[in-house]
Design goal:
Elements: E1 5-8, E2 15-16, E3 22-27, E4 33-36, E5 39-42, E6 45-54, E7 60-70, E8 77-80, H1 81-86, E9 90-92, E10 101-103, E11 109-112, E12 114-116, E13 119-123, H2 154-157
């Protein structure tokens, strides 16, 4: 479960433990922490994360999480239901369905959750996969490509 993302109704923030998954990563201010039970866990930074969820018809959809806390060596990755609810998602847990799901405000299914290890899992990544096997996103401009186009003339910046 260390690499997987579970839906958590008790968490007020999203927490991930693998820095290579972060987009727009920025260091946390000195002293930022969260409580995990009775333990104070330092937050090393914040950023955005894309997770791959199973949508209708078995198709893979990307869910972007914003302002996710990076906590190295955290036991698993947590997706805060409270934050998803503020974005208009709701959790359909009716017992007449074979799978619980996240729905949009218009009542359409966005993602199905897997009941695994007594947890509701949004993204299941087996622990035996190497770090290079995670969902990757390539930036259009990086140190190997040409420069990003300038939005202003040089004299504006000087």
């Amino acid at each position: 479960m260390k690499n997987s993302a579970i839906l958590d109704t008790g968490s007020t923030i999203d927490i991930f433990n693998e820095i290579s998954r972060f987009l727009n990563f920025r260091a946390a201010p000195y002293g930022d922490f969260l409580w995990a039970g009775e333990h104070k866990v330092p937050i090393q930074g914040y950023g955005d994360i894309d997770i791959a969820v199973k949508g209708p018809g078995g198709q893979r959809q990307i869910l972007r999480l914003y302002d996710v806390a990076y906590c190295e060596n955290f036991a698993c990755n947590l997706v805060s239901f409270r934050k998803l609810k503020r974005r208009g998602f709701w959790w359909d847990t009716r017992s007449d369905q074979s799978q619980t799901c996240l729905k949009r405000a218009d009542n359409s299914v966005f993602a199905y959750l897997k009941d695994q290890y007594d947890q509701f899992v949004l993204e299941d990544i087996p622990e035996d996969l190497s770090r290079g096997s995670f969902f990757t996103r390539r930036n259009k401009f990086n140190t190997y490509t040409r420069r990003k186009p300038r939005k202003a003339l040089a004299h504006v910046w000087h």
